[in-house]
Prior knowledge:
The chain has 500 residues and is α/β, with parallel strands linked by helices. It has three domains: 8-99, Arc Repressor Mutant, subunit A; 127-132 and 156-394, Aspartate Aminotransferase, domain 2; 398-499, Aspartate Aminotransferase, domain 1 (Alpha-Beta Complex). Helices cover 40% and strands 13% of the residues. α12 links the parallel β7 (277-280) and β8 (310-314). α4 packs across α5. The longest helix has 27 residues, at 395-421. The protein is globular. The termini are far apart.
Amino acid sequence: MVLSTGPLKSTFGGNIPKVDTFQDLVLKKDVDGRDLWRWIYSEVRAAILDGRLKPGMRLPSSRSLSVQYGVARGTVVVAFEQLHAEGYLKTERGVGSRVSLQLPQVVGRVAPSGHISSRGISKRAKRALEGATPLPLGRSIGRAFRSYEPAIDQFPVEVWSRVASRVLRRAPRSLYGQGESGGYMPLRKAIAEYVGSSRGVRCSANQVIVTAGAQQALDLLCRLLLEEGDEAWMEDPGYPGARQAMRAAGIKPISVPVDNEGLVVAKGRELASKAQLVYVTPSNQFPLGVTMSAARRMELIQWAMTNNAWIVEDEYDAEYRYSGHPVASLHSLDRSGRVLYIGTFTKMLFNALRLGFIVVPEQLIEPMELARSFIDRHPPTLDQAILAEFILDGHFGHHVRKMRNLYLERSQLLLELGRKHLSGVLEIQEPESGMKTVGWLKEQRSDTAAAKRAQSVGLEVLPISGFSYKYHARPGLMLGFAGCHEEEIRRGIHLLKSVL
């Protein structure tokens, strides 16, 4: 059966227009800008996969196709050779090229975009992905009132570049090889020393496991420490990423309310006394910003000891305390090895630096390193080496202190302008720490509707109700200030006033 040598559209399908001269082809090539041989290869391959070219069908000669479409014969030959190498065509001397007989008679078509077959993702994955949304791409910096971004415009890029250049020049070739699954040891030592002096976390360098940010740390802990179906306490309102990590691991999150002292431990005992894990943000509760009281901290540790449960302490921006010294970590009170401490450099330095860490007890070091190696073998060694030097040279500590002062100034400006322009509409809570605060709507109106109106004029605000699952706080908006310079805060308040 000889294939017709009509226009390429009718022969192979697709929407490539027929052109008459080689010059036109060179200038236009095809709609995707691919090389000519790849165009021919792709069209023939697609026709075979779609079943328009059946097994055993004979194709026109390379000479006839080259004449018909004004291309060099060698271009067609290259396309046919690639199809032959991949097993789509069989070529015999004196016979020409035919579609391989080894291919199935009917090759299934790809499902249209948005339609997933019944053999798609697993039920467990569907449960984990329910309600999840992808993180936004950071096309700009400093937008009011983005809550997840530090002051990127103030990051000392020149200093970081000098440190990086020095590390790359002096790095032994071993740093370009296989790294340690637990992380680059000099960085682990630097982290252990830093959290020991600043957060009261007593640990050795071996107890520090470097991760790709706090989210990977949560995912690792949920998969390693709990069984499917186990219950875990979750602050409500609380951090969605922690809840998603639990659900992805088959863990049942139990919503526990938060008051002005933090997680209500008594309510957690009432709801799920046998829970195996609790996730908390004690230094700066996400998203309400309250600090867990000393009494509540001791109560939580006592419960964990009694029930042989784990406490996951997430300190994502605890360094930024605006009155007195940073509150000591929950880990610093623990004598039983039940508290797992998570930290991240994303909020301290810049978002693109996907490095965080977990401090684990001695008995979890080996299994955690093994589990870490299953995911991506090891963290990027050169990035770790640069960060280690940045910390050891004192640049990290200096940057954090500078940002603490800057964020205090920006938070005070936000409060001042809010009182001046939003009085009677929005009550902005004075932050004790962190990079964001809450603006409470004074009328009992929908914070989701208010957030949508603010988003419609380009403001990046989020409704507090979006972080609640069972226990709904009063209507409010999350307002980030750390990454917004003075004029952007002023612009944001003006726009917020116009929509509220």
